[in-house]
Automatic annotation (TrEMBL):
<keyword id="KW-0560">Oxidoreductase</keyword>
<feature type="domain" description="FAD-binding PCMH-type">
    <location>
        <begin position="1"/>
        <end position="177"/>
    </location>
</feature>
<dbReference type="Pfam" id="PF03450">
    <property type="entry name" value="CO_deh_flav_C"/>
</dbReference>
<dbReference type="GO" id="GO:0071949">
    <property type="term" value="F:FAD binding"/>
</dbReference>
<dbReference type="InterPro" id="IPR005107">
    <property type="entry name" value="CO_DH_flav_C"/>
</dbReference>
<keyword id="KW-0274">FAD</keyword>
<dbReference type="GO" id="GO:0016491">
    <property type="term" value="F:oxidoreductase activity"/>
</dbReference>
<dbReference type="InterPro" id="IPR051312">
    <property type="entry name" value="Diverse_Substr_Oxidored"/>
</dbReference>
<keyword id="KW-0285">Flavoprotein</keyword>
<dbReference type="InterPro" id="IPR036318">
    <property type="entry name" value="FAD-bd_PCMH-like_sf"/>
</dbReference>
<dbReference type="Pfam" id="PF00941">
    <property type="entry name" value="FAD_binding_5"/>
</dbReference>
<dbReference type="InterPro" id="IPR016167">
    <property type="entry name" value="FAD-bd_PCMH_sub1"/>
</dbReference>
<dbReference type="InterPro" id="IPR016166">
    <property type="entry name" value="FAD-bd_PCMH"/>
</dbReference>
<dbReference type="InterPro" id="IPR016169">
    <property type="entry name" value="FAD-bd_PCMH_sub2"/>
</dbReference>
<protein>
    <submittedName>
        <fullName>Carbon monoxide dehydrogenase</fullName>
    </submittedName>
</protein>
<dbReference type="InterPro" id="IPR002346">
    <property type="entry name" value="Mopterin_DH_FAD-bd"/>
</dbReference>
<dbReference type="InterPro" id="IPR036683">
    <property type="entry name" value="CO_DH_flav_C_dom_sf"/>
</dbReference>
Length: 289
């Protein structure tokens, strides 16, 4: 199919883009990478009358460390994330996740902000950001607003972004020593949505006791899901086969997958348990190094 006709704007500043959003109202959509929005427009699942292309706005594609926070601009591409030495140093799971997103052509254009703002539980970065306890920065006519990641995803393709706001930055706490992270998803073919995916970040002390844990699940719930009981099962305990098994069981029980062409509900729950165990062990191995 072909998208219905629309008007195109390309503002040069963030203030212009926000002004256009307020002017055109609910009929306007923000365009960054476009790899979620454009296919929906072609299928006429999305029919905006105005597209506001923010790719020409400077200052929204930096990756930098300020104090104890890593800041990632919303227009940072997946390719830039994949090759960032700063992110590799602190968060090895970014090297895991970016290589599993589509293909190099897509990663050269697709943006992390668009991935998150789309609000799709099948996307990979929502689970990653849950595991990393990120904060979303939204900018509107009233200035900047910080949104904890646990409050950002509010429903099926629904986020906490208000009308006239643009996701401009992601902030992630710099992990302490002894922290490791990992991500993996099972997909039917390269570039497909995950059948299931798991992101894990752990901080261990010298005795292999888990001081903190973050676990996010991909595409096994209507909205991106934090595996809270699994995190609690690990925190304050030594990483043993028993504690890892318990965390995996809780994640399998607490998710809510749907049976579809990618597999049955039972299969997906089993897959979540397998991936949770594998990613805990992989994150722990990295933490010990």
């Amino acid at each position: 199919m072909i998208a219905q006709s629309f008007q195109y704007e390309s503002p040069g500043t963030l203030a212009e883009a926000i002004s256009m959003l307020n002017k055109y109202g609910e009929e306007a959509k923000i365009l960054s990478g476009g790899h979620s929005l454009i296919p929906m427009m072609k299928l006429r699942l999305a029919t905006p009358e105005w597209l506001i292309d923010i790719n020409g706005i400077p200052g929204l594609s930096d990756i930098k460390k300020e104090g104890d926070v890593i800041k990632i601009g919303a227009l940072t591409t997946e390719a830039d994330i994949e090759h960032s030495d700063l992110l590799k140093k602190h968060f090895p799971l970014f090297a895991d996740v970016t290589k599993l997103i589509a293909d190099p052509q897509v990663r050269n254009v697709a943006t992390i902000g668009g991935n998150l703002a789309h609000g799709d539980a099948a996307n990979d970065h929502p689970a990653v950001m849950l595991a990393l306890h990120a904060t979303i920065i939204a900018t509107g006519s009233g200035g900047k607003r910080s949104i904890p990641i646990d409050e950002f995803f509010q429903g099926f393709y629904m986020t906490a972004l208000q009308h006239g706001e643009i996701l401009t930055e992601i902030q992630i706490p710099v992990p302490s020593a002894g922290t490791g992270s990992a991500y993996h998803k099972l997909e039917r073919k390269v570039g497909d949505y995950a059948t299931a995916g798991v992101a894990v970040q752990l901080t261990l002390d010298g005795n292999d006791v888990c001081n903190s844990a973050g676990i996010g699940l991909t595409n096994v719930n209507p909205i991106p899901l934090r595996a809270s009981r699994s995190e609690q099962a690990l925190t304050g305990k030594r990483l043993t086969d028993e504690t890892i098994e318990e965390a995996a069981r809780y994640a399998s029980e607490d998710c809510s997958p749907s049976s579809d062409l990618r597999g049955s509900e039972e299969y997906k729950r089993h897959l979540v348990a397998v991936l949770v165990k594998r990613m805990i062990r992989k994150a722990a191995e990295r933490a010990r190094k």
